[in-house]
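chain below, 40 aa
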Amino acid sequence: MIESLIVIRSGATDYEMQGRIRGAVDIPLCPTGVAEASHA
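prediction:
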């Protein structure tokens, strides 16, 4: 039985920070996104 669930938001991409693309497209993380993922 699962006792807890941890949800982590995906890191930022250059396109997301520019407001260009969001969704199911596989875009590499920008340096900010890599830092966010490392911090999580």
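The mean pLDDT is 82. Residues 31-39 form the longest helix (9 residues).
thats it, cya
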